[in-house]
Amino acid sequence: MSLTKEAKNNTQNATTASQEEFIEVIGAREHNLKNIDISIPRDKLVVVTGISGSGKSSLAFDTIYAEGQRRYMESFSAYARSFIGNMERPDVDKINGLSPVISIEQKTTSKNPRSTVGTLTEIYDFLRVLYARAGEAISYKTGKKMQRQTEDQIIEHLISEFPDAKLSILAPVVKGRKGHYRELFQQIRKMGFTKARVDGVILEIDARMQVDRYKTHDIEIVVDRIVVDKKDKYRITQSVKTALKHGNGIMMVRDTDGNVHHFSQNLMDPETGLAYDEPAPNSFSFNSPYGACPTCKGLGELENITKETVIPNPKLSISRGGIAPLGEYRDIWIFKKVDALLKNTDVNLSTPIEKFPEEVLNVLLYGSKMKVEVNSKKYPGTKWSTSFEGIIKFLQKQQESGTDKMRDWLEEYTVIQKCPDCNGLRLKKESLHFLIDGKNISELALMSIGDLGNWFEGIESRLSEKQNLIGAEVLKEIRKRLGFMLDVGLDYLSLDRPLKTLSGGEAQRIRLATQIGTQLVGVLYILDEPSIGLHQRDNTKLIAALQDLRDLGNTVMVVEHDKDMMLASDFILDIGPGAGRHGGKIVAAGNPDEFLKQNSKTAKYLKEELAIEIPKERRKGNGKKLQLKGAKGNNLKNVNVDFPLGTMMCVTGVSGSGKSTLIHDTLYRILNQKFYRSKKDPMEHDSIKGLEHLDKVIEVDQSPIGRTPRSNPATYTGVFTDIRALFSNLPEAKIRGYKPGRFSFNVKGGRCETCEGAGMKLIEMDFLPDVHVPCETCKGKRYNRETLEVRFKGKSISDVLDMTVEQAVEFFTNQPKILRKIKTLSEVGLGYITLGQHATTLSGGEAQRVKLATELSKKDTGNTFYILDEPTTGLHFQDIEHLLTVLQKLVDKGNTVLVIEHNMDVIKVADYLIDLGPEGGTGGGNIVFTGTPQKIIKLKNSYTGKFLKAELKA
C-alpha cells in the first residue's frame, strides 16, 4: 500500500520537526550504559541526575559531547586531521539533531601561577588597553604629572625662557650604567662631536678616551653651545633636532650656573629628568618583560631560602645538626671548611648556634671573600686555601641551576615571600604610576568584581573629554564582562586571583560567564555540576544565567544534583537505579511536574517521601574546645572562634565570606605545623588554645589521588600491598619463586615492559591534549603472561584490579586484612569504582571519598580532627545519606569532624554551625553566628539561616 503525496509530505515534515525539536540518542552503550534510547528536548534547560556512578557523565560527556566533538573534527580537512588522528566513535548506534557542542567541565583549571581571573575573562586585557591609551603618567620621584613636548614646543620654550643665556645642548646616551665605553667615545668622535659631559663634567674627547668600567656613569654628547637669540632660531632648531635624534627623544640643556633642564618627546618629569617609555598594552602585563617586576618576574612572590628555614633550632650546635641542610657532623669537606672558618673565632662546631656572634653567622650563611686554610686529607701536611661562599648562597645557586631532584630537596628550606620591590603587585615601578581616576591598574585588579563594577559605574563623569573619547568602546566591553561575572555570583573574586586557587565550580562559572558573553545561538552546552561551591543564595543567580543562555536559543544540559536546579529546569533525566553495573538505565524522565509523578529515588527525595533524618539530639561535645583568636587573613576581620571538640561542625556562609581562609589557611595550617612540622605558615592570627586535646589532623580535600594512570584506589588505600602479599603466598607463586614485587606494575619483573605496567600508552598530540590508548602487547592488563598465570580463586592479579569494589568485597570475604580496607570504600558509596581505576578518571568528589575511606580504614585515636571541604560534591541525596552515616561514626568514636559545606542536608544534621559573612569579599569576614541549627533560623541577617528555616520546616 503506497502513501499519497500529501501523507508523504506530512511524514517528512513530522520527521524534520522531531529532529529539530529533540536530540535523539539511540543505542548508547558507553561504559555502563545499557543500550539506552532517549529523546532530549532542544533549546531547553535539561538536568541529568542520578546517584554517583549511575552513568550521567557517560551519557552527557562520553556519548553526546564525544560524538559532537568527533563530528566537528570530521569537518576538518584531511591534512588537518592527519595531525589530530582519528577520534574514536562513542559506543552509540545513532544521535540525531545534534548541535555544535561546548563542554564546560571542572577539570580544565590552569595550574599556571601566571593565569588569573583577569587573564581568563580577558577583563585585565581590556584594562591594559585602557591604561596604555588613556592612563595619566605620574613621576614616581616627585608625584607630578609627566610631560610630553613636541620639537616645536621645546624650541619655543628655550627661546622664551632663556633669552640671551649661554646654554650647552646635551644628548644623553648612557644613563646609570657600568662600562668603559671606549667604543662609544670613538663613535661620538667619528660623528664630529668634540666634547662629552661625563658624570657632570664636560670633557674633550680624545682618541683613547675611556672611563672606569666598574663604576656607574651618565654620559651626554655636547651637541652645541649657543647663546639664545631669536635670530639664531635655525641653528637652535638644528641643534635640538640633532640632540633629540641621538638622545632617542630626550635632551638636556645646561646653563652657565651648572643647572640642568630636561626635555623629552616621550613622558618625562621636567624636574628630575625621569623618563618613561611610551606605554603599550604589554607595559601593564605581568607576563611580559616590558611590564613585569624584574625582581619576581611578574609572579608577585619569591621563593627564598631564609636563615629560619636553614637553622630551625638555634639551640643546637653545628655538629648536632643545627644547620638543617648539612645534618649532623660527618668527616666531609663542608664540615672541614666550616671548622676552618671558625678557627679564629670564639665559637666552634660544638657551640650552640644561638651563641654565635651576628657577623660570624652572616659569614657562615652568606659567605666571605676571605680565604680559609683547610687541611688536605689526600696530601697530609698540606693545606688548601679556599674561599667560603656561604651555605644559603650555595643553596640558592643550586635552586637556580641544580637538578630537579636537588630543587625538590630544597623545597624543604624554601619559603614563599611577597616580592619586596613590587609588594606583590607583579608590575614594574613605572607601570604602577599610570593612573586613571587616581588608581593604578593593580589597585583595580585587587578589587572584588562587585567593587570594581561599582567603580566603573559612572566613570565617564570622572574622566577628561580626551580619556572618554579614547576609552568609550573599552569601557563598554569591560562593563559587559563584569556584568556576566556578577550574573553567575562571582562578585567576591578579584581579577588578580590565581586560577589555581579556585574551586572547580568557580572556574566553571567563569567559563560560563565567558560563554554567555559570546552570545552564540543554536549551541548545545554541557556543564558538570556548576553549583559546586555556591551558597543557596547565589544559586538563583546561576539558574537565571543558565536560563539566559537557553533563552538565546541554546540547549543547556547540566549534570547536577541540586534540588533548586532540577525544579527550575524544563526537563529532568534520571539515570540509575544503582551505580556501576547496577546503573546505566533511564529510570525517569520528563518536565518537573511529570517527573515528580514518577517513582525514582530522585523523585522521592524531591517530593520528600525520602529525606535525610534530622537528629533528635545534637551532641554537646566532650567539653574541650579549640579557641582561635584574632584571625585576620585575607578578608577576615579579627575574628575569634571556638571549635567544640567531639562534635560534627559545619562552617557555612556565602561564597567568598572567608570560610577557606579561616579553616584551610589558618586553622589547618596551625594544626599541620603543630603535628607534622609543616613549612606553610598559617595566616595572621593572635593565638590558639586547646591544641593539647588533639593528636592528629587530617584534611580530606578534592585534589587528585594521583596524576598518572599508575595511581588508583587500590594503591592509594594501601590494599594493593596486601593483595600482592596474598598472591605471592599462593603455591604457584612459591614454586616459581615470585615475591610481592613480581605483582607490582611499577617495577621490572612481572609487569608488561612495553607500557612499563601502565596498561596505557601516552600518545602526544602536539597542540591538543595528550591521549592514553590501551597497550597493544598486554591489552591493558599491565602484566606479562607469566605473572597472569598465578591465580587466586581463578582470578589473576589483573582481574582483581578490574573488579569493582562491590565485587571485591564478596571476593575477599575470608581475607580480613584486605576486606577491612575495601569495605570502607564501599561504605563511602564507592562500590561502583574498580580497584585499578586510573586516578585521572576519578572526579574530585570520588577522589575525596577514596581519601576518606583510606583514613577510615586506619586505626583512629579518638582525638583526630578531620577537615572536609564540600564532601557532597558529585553526590546524590542517597550518597549524601551514606556519607553522613560514615562521618557520624567518626564523631561517635570521639573524633571531631569539621565540614565546609553549602548543602542544606549536611548543615541541618550538624551539631554546631559557624556561619561567616554576611556577604562575600570585603563585605564578609565576620562571624555571623555560632551555635546549633535550631538557633540560626531565628537570625535575621544570616542567609544560611533563611534557607535552613525552609529545610527544617520551622
Automatic annotation (TrEMBL):
GO CC annotation terms, alphabetical: cytoplasm; excinuclease repair complex
Protein's name in the database: UvrABC system protein A
Cellular compartment(s): Cytoplasm
NCBIfam families assigned to the protein according to its UniProt record, in alphabetical order: PRK00349.1 (NF001503), uvra (TIGR00630)
Primary gene name: uvrA
Main localisation: cytoplasm
GO molecular function, one term: ATP hydrolysis activity
The species this protein was found in: Marivirga arenosa
Lineage, uppermost ranks: Bacteria, Pseudomonadati, Bacteroidota, Cytophagia, Cytophagales
Pfam families: UvrA_DNA-bind, UvrA_inter
Keyword ATP-binding set for record: yes
